[in-house]
Write a structure and sequence with these properties.
Two copies of one chain form a homodimer. Chain A is of the alpha+beta class and 340 residues long. Chain A contains 13 helices and ten strands. In chain A, the strands form three sheets. Chain A has a five-stranded antiparallel β-sheet, sandwiched between helices. In chain A, strands 4-5-6 form a three-stranded antiparallel β-sheet. The A-B interface holds A 101-104, 112, 135-136, 138, 140, 142, 148, 150, 152, 156, 158-162, 222, 230, 234-237, 239-241, 250-253, 255-256, 259, 340 and B 101-104, 112, 135-136, 138, 140, 142, 148, 150, 152, 156, 158-162, 222, 230, 234-237, 239-241, 250-253, 255-256, 259, 340. Chain A binds a DNA duplex (30 and 30 nucleotides) through helix 2 and helix 3.
Chain lengths: 340, 340
DNA sequence: CTTGGCACTCTGCCCGTGCGAGTGCCAACC
DNA sequence: GGTTGGCACTCGCACGGGCAGAGTGCCAAG
C-alpha cells in the first residue's frame, strides 16, 4: 500500500511541475525537484503504472509525461489542498469591489478582478431572474397604447419591456395598474409569479382586467423563462498568452463558445454556492471546451445561489489557486448583493 | 498627369489584392489580375515611385509590395467607392435586429451582427447618458433611510443608484419626491439637468428640501459625468483567425486595450452620425492599436449622435465593406432606438 | 514613356545530421 | 519483492546547406 501512496505523490508532483513549467516532466527532473526519497528508476516504474492506469501520458516516445484529464481529476479530488488566499489578495478583492455603484458595476468589477487574480478568462453570471424576487414594478406610459414595464429585483437587476395595449390607457389607469402590480408581486420570487396571476385578475377592478392580463402575460413570458440569463466575460486577453501549447488548434473555437454564452450558461446552471465545481477537459462534453477546464461556484447566500461565476482556462492550470480565487470572489459578491 | 492617375490605379490594385490574398503583391501578378493596360515593367516603375512617396513598402528585398498606413489612407479617402450592401445583407440586418426586446438586447444583437457581417471585432457604445433625456425617475424605498433611485432615459437606458438619506423617510415623502423629481426632470437632457436643480429646490415644499438636495446631488454626481459610458464588445474570436500575419506581435495587447474600454471610448467620442470615421494603424496613436484600424460611426438621428459603433481589425481590412456595414447597422440601430 | 531581357537578391523549404532528453529493460542489490 | 544503477534505444528538435521561385532594379531598345 505504501507504493500506492507514493505513486499518488508522484502524480501530484507531475501535475505541479507541469503546471508551473509547461514542459512534459521526466523522471530525473522529478527526483531532483521533489524529495520523494527514491531514485529516478523507481519513479519510472511508478510512471509506467500511472500511464497504464490512464493518469498520465507522453506526447511522444521519448518525452516526459503529461497529466491526462483523468490525472487532473484525481489531483483535484484527492491530491490538492485548498490554498488559502494571501492577505494581500484578500485586501485586493475588497479594494477592487468596494465602491461599486450598481449591479452591473459589481459584476464587471468582479470579472475583471477574477481575470487579474487567476490570469484566466473570467465569467460572471447575472443573478438568475427566476431565483430573484420582485422589489418593485414600475409602469411608464410611453404613448396612448404603449407602456413600458420596469422590473426591479431584490438582486439589483433591472429589466424593461415594452407592452402594447389593445386599447388606449389613461394616466389614472396607469397609476392603478402600478399599485395593483406592486401589491400582487412585490416580494414574490419570479419563479412563483405565475401562480399569483389568477388572484390578481380576480381582485382587479373590472375595467382593468384586460390591461392587467396583457401586462401580466408579457411579464411572465419575457421575464420568467430562464432563457434570458446574461453573462459578463473578461480577461480574454489571457487566452493569447502561452496559448500555442495550451490549446492545440487555436483559441478561436473557445472564444466563440464563450461569446455564444449558451454553453457557459448551461455549465453555470449546475453550480451551487457551497462547493466549487471543476470540469476538466473532455468532461465538459463540448467540442470547443475540450482542452479547457472550467472552475465555477455559485454566489449568494448558502440557501439560494443567485448565479454563478468562474474561470475558464487550459486544463494545465493551477487548480488550487483558481478554486480559491473563485470561491473568495463569489463570497464577496454574495455579501455585496445581500446588503444592497 | 495620366501617369499620376495610373499610379493611383496601381495603388488601388495593390490594396485590393493584398486585402484579399494577404500576400505581398508583385508586379507580374498585378498585371495579370487587373487590366491596367501596361506591362509589369511599367508597373514596377510606378511601384518604385509609390514606394518613394511612402504609400507602399516591401517587407524584404525581393518580395512584393504591401500598402503602408499612408497608402490605406489614400485608398480610403480617394480610391474607394462606398460599396452598397447586398439585399441579402440588408435583410439579414433586419432579421437579426427585429424582435429585440430592450436596449441591451438591441445592442448585443447589433454587436453580434456587426461581427458576423464584417468578420472583425465589433464594438457598440451604449447611448451616452449625457446626451439622453430623462423619461422617468423612480424612487424605491429600500429601508428607512435608504432609497433606490432609478433613472430611465428616452434611449432605453436604465440606471440605478442607492442613496442613503440623512434622516428617515416615510412613504408619503417618497411619493412626493417621485412626483417632484419627475415634474422637474422628465424630458430634460441629462447634460442640462444641473441647471434645473436650483428651481427644483425652490419649488420643493420646505420639509422635503433636504431630501431633494441629497437625491439631486447623487443624480448629478453619478449620472451626469460622462465617465460611465459603457461598451458592448463582440467577435473577438475573429482576432484568432489569420492573425499570425495580421498582428505582428500577438493579439494580446489589442484584446487588453479593448477590455480596457477607455481607449475605444475615447475614439468613439469623436464620431458623429453623418460620416464614417476611419482611423488607420498609427493614426490611432495608441501602442496596442498600432497595426489595427478602427472604423466607426455614430448612431441616432442626424442632429444628435446617441453613441457610436464600429469595428476593429487589422489595417489589412476591406475598408469599403466595413464602412458600408458599420453605416448600415448604425442607421438601423438609430431607427430602432428612435421609435421605442 | 514603355517594354522585354537579364542578372541579382532574398526568403522559404526540404532534407540530412547530430544532440539531448527520456524511456524501458535488465541484472544486481537490499 | 521492491529498488537501483547501467545501458541501449528512440525520437523530436534545432541547425545548416542547398535549391527553387518570386520579385526586383537596371538597361538598352522600341
Amino acid at each position: 500500500m505504501a507504493h500506492d501512496e507514493r505513486r499518488l505523490e508522484v502524480l501530484r508532483a507531475i501535475v505541479q511541475d507541469y503546471v508551473s513549467t509547461n514542459d512534459p516532466v521526466g523522471s530525473k527532473a522529478l527526483a531532483e525537484r521533489h524529495d520523494l526519497g527514491v531514485s529516478p528508476a523507481t519513479i519510472r516504474n511508478d510512471m509506467a503504472v500511472l500511464e497504464e492506469q490512464g493518469y498520465i501520458t507522453q506526447p511522444h516516445t521519448s518525452a516526459g509525461r503529461v497529466p491526462t484529464d483523468k490525472g487532473y481529476r484525481l489531483f483535484v479530488d484527492r491530491l490538492s489542498a485548498v490554498k488559502p488566499l494571501s492577505v494581500a489578495e484578500r485586501r485586493a478583492i475588497e479594494r477592487f469591489l468596494d465602491g461599486a455603484v450598481d449591479l452591473h458595476d459589481v459584476l464587471s468589477r468582479s470579472v475583471r478582478l477574477l481575470a487579474q487574480l487567476t490570469r484566466q478568462v473570467a465569467v460572471v453570471q447575472y443573478p438568475t431572474l427566476s431565483r430573484s424576487a420582485v422589489r418593485h414594478l414600475e409602469v411608464v406610459q410611453l404613448a396612448a397604447a404603449r407602456l413600458m414595464l420596469v422590473l426591479i429585483t431584490d438582486t439589483g437587476r433591472v429589466e424593461q419591456r415594452i407592452v402594447d395595449t389593445p386599447v388606449d390607457v389613461d394616466a389614472g389607469a396607469v397609476a392603478e395598474l402600478r399599485t395593483l402590480l406592486n401589491a400582487a408581486f412585490v416580494g414574490v420570487k419570479l419563479v412563483d409569479a405565475g401562480q399569483k396571476v389568477p388572484d390578481l385578475l380576480e381582485t382587479a377592478p373590472p375595467h382593468l382586467r384586460g390591461l392587467v392580463a396583457t401586462v401580466s402575460a408579457t411579464l411572465l413570458e419575457t421575464l420568467v423563462e430562464p432563457s434570458e440569463d446574461r453573462l459578463v466575460i473578461g480577461g480574454t486577453a489571457n487566452l493569447a498568452r502561452g496559448n500555442a501549447l495550451d490549446f492545440p488548434g487555436s483559441v478561436r473555437p473557445l472564444l466563440e463558445a464563450l461569446e455564444e454564452q449558451v454553453v457557459v450558461l448551461r455549465l453555470m446552471s449546475q453550480v451551487d454556492a457551497s462547493t466549487v465545481l471543476v470540469r476538466i477537459g473532455e468532461e465538459n462534453a463540448h467540442e470547443a471546451l475540450t482542452g479547457a477546464s472550467f472552475v465555477s461556484v455559485g454566489y449568494g447566500s448558502d440557501d439560494r445561489a443567485l448565479g454563478g461565476l468562474g474561470v475558464v482556462g487550459p486544463t494545465r492550470m493551477d487548480y488550487p489557486m483558481n478554486m480559491a480565487a473563485v470561491r473568495a470572489v463569489a463570497r464577496y459578491v454574495g455579501h455585496l448583493l445581500a446588503e444592497s
